[in-house]
Write a structure and sequence with these properties.
nine-stranded mixed sheet, four-stranded antiparallel sheet, about 375 residues, 15 strands, 3 domains, Pseudouridine synthase
């Protein structure tokens, strides 16, 4: 496994932006590991908006063997080994155009590339009076039902209008003090265009205890999705590593063979079949970036209207123009990927009791499902004549 080379003045330069970026990425944070579930910065790129290459190193003949994680940790102020290893695992550092393990030993002639996939984020949150659908609230936590189109937290072009901006305003009005205001008690996150339940910690103690549950994968999360195709089994489990796409660094990919990326497990169950699309429930055993979307594409059933992962076109169905018009009408009704975080359950950080919440499907997704149901019933009726 490759390792970062010894850098000499003649072989590399490091820009201020790169250093700032890597320090942001690699600074120690006790709750960072549970933030892998969904990544708003990876949204809506379609592979076109590629991260900037900030560092390229070609090692010379004087290169001595050195672990890549140690090399980075020793040369970036504030970096920790855990976060350097996380950055390597996430594919932010490539050696000879390939991802590597943290124990890779650099050798002469290696080419090391570090990508900047996000800009240094401001730690200042601007409170904004944004309407919030507060599903539940007590002295230690909140459950918010996030609408489609809302990014969870500020960053990379989304510095306002986010859930965090709205929470900051709301909690200030309630005179709730949270030490880490930038994340305002966020323990996990979901995609910009995924709707559904998000838990917010209102105290540092609640934040720590909830984060621990996410890290141990003891939180119950049930999603509802409309996917392309007719699944051959009524239920099953998808297990494949998920990591950044080797070419388009802002989207994710599944790696069923090999050990690149992080292990991810998704359980699915068919709820209703509509011939060309299927309504399914999905339960996450792990929480990787875009896990459901990537896993469903892997088995040939991408989410309906998922522009990033191939669901925004006709994947299954007929060649007739009426069918194409029907699908286009469904896309117009549901102009986003069909995914809703419906149920969320965990142990209350104060009482120790199990609590669980269930939200209704949003109107756009419910309307698209109803349209497919009616289409299927109409097709069946015609076949019987």
């Amino acid at each position: 496994m490759p390792h970062l080379p010894v850098i000499t003045p003649a072989s590399v330069y490091v820009t201020q932006h790169l250093t700032a970026y890597l320090c942001t990425m690699l600074m120690d944070n006790d709750t960072e590991d549970v933030w892998d579930e969904e990544d708003p910065e990876a949204e809506d790129t379609g592979g076109e908006d590629q991260p900037e290459e900030r560092l390229r190193i070609v090692t010379d003949k004087r290169q001595i063997p050195l672990r890549i994680d140690k090399f980075v940790m020793n040369r970036l102020e504030g970096a920790t080994r855990n976060k350097v290893q996380q950055a390597i695992d996430d594919g932010f550092i490539l050696v000879n155009d390939k991802p590597v393990k943290a124990n890779y030993k650099v050798k002469a002639g290696d080419t090391i590339v570090v990508f900047e996939t996000r800009k240094p984020e401001s730690q200042e949150v601007i409170p904004q009076n944004i309407p919030l659908d507060i599903f539940y609230e007590d002295e230690s936590l909140m459950i918010v039902n996030k609408p489609a189109g809302m990014v969870v937290h500020p960053g990379c072009g989304n510095y306002s209008g986010t859930l965090v901006n709205g929470l900051s305003y709301y909690l200030q009005q309630e005179q709730v003090e949270i030490s880490n205001l930038y994340r305002v008690g966020l323990v996990h996150r979901i995609d910009k265009d995924t709707t559904g339940l998000v838990v917010i910690a209102k105290t540092d103690d609640a934040m720590t205890k909830l984060a621990a549950q996410f890290k141990k994968h003891t939180v119950y999360r049930r999603y509802i999705a409309l996917v392309w195709g007719d699944l051959p089994q009524d239920e099953g489990t998808i297990q494949a590593h998920i990591g950044r796409n080797l070419r388009f660094r802002k989207i994710m990919d599944a790696f069923p063979d090999g050990d690149y990326g992080k292990d991810a497990i998704t359980h699915y169950k068919v709820l209703e079949r509509f011939n060309y699309v299927t309504l399914v429930e999905l339960r996450l055993e792990t929480g990787r970036t875009h896990q459901i979307r990537v896993h469903m594409r892997l088995i040939g059933h991408p989410l309906f209207n998922d522009a990033t992962y191939g669901g925004d076109r006709i994947v299954k169905g007929t060649i007739f123009s009426k069918y194409k018009q029907f699908v286009d009408n469904c896309f117009a009704i549901l102009p986003r990927h069909a995914l809703h975080a419906k149920e969320l359950g965990f142990t209350h950080p104060v009482t120790g009791q199990w609590i669980q919440f269930d939200s209704e499907l949003p109107a756009d997704m419910a309307a698209a499902i109803a349209k497919w149901r009616n289409y299927t019933m109409g097709t069946a009726a015609k076949a019987e004549r």
